[in-house]
Amino acid sequence: MSHSVTLYTTRFCPYCVRAKALLDQKGVIYTEIAVDNDPGLRREMMSRSGATSVPQIWIGEEHIGGCDEMLLLERQGRLDGLIERALAAP
Fold first, then answer.
1. What domains are there in the chain, each with its CATH number?
2. What separation in angstroms does the CA of 29 have from each of 22, 23, 84?
3. DSSP state of 2
4. What is the tens place of the pLDDT at every residue in 19-53?
5. From CA 57, how far away is CA 60, in angstroms rounded?
């Protein structure tokens, strides 16, 4: 079974660290795909997201963008609902 949240990250990106910290604080289990030293994974991320920056975050099958977008969803009170729906999806 795949996790409901997937993040493409790099090791030293402060936005990646912040995004993972928020998910950790919420107790969300996520899949982290590190693109630091893997050009193929970086190309995969860019192809899936259309973006070159990290993190790139998916909740279920929905690409939500990066850390700023995830923090906005949190401030709007919408993040938990998105995660719950992704967990409930078949």
1. 5-88 (3.40.30.10)
2. 11, 8, 12
3. -
4. 999 999 999 999 999 999 999 999 999 999 999 99
5. 10
User: CA nearest 25: which of 69, 78, 74, 76?
Assistant: 74
pLDDT band at 1 (very low <50, low <70, confident <90, very high): very low
77-89 as b/e: b if 16+ CB within 10 A = eebeebbeebeee
Average pLDDT, integer, range 54-78: 98
- Of the candidates 42, 32, 26, 29, the residue with the CA atom closest to the CA atom of residue 7: 32
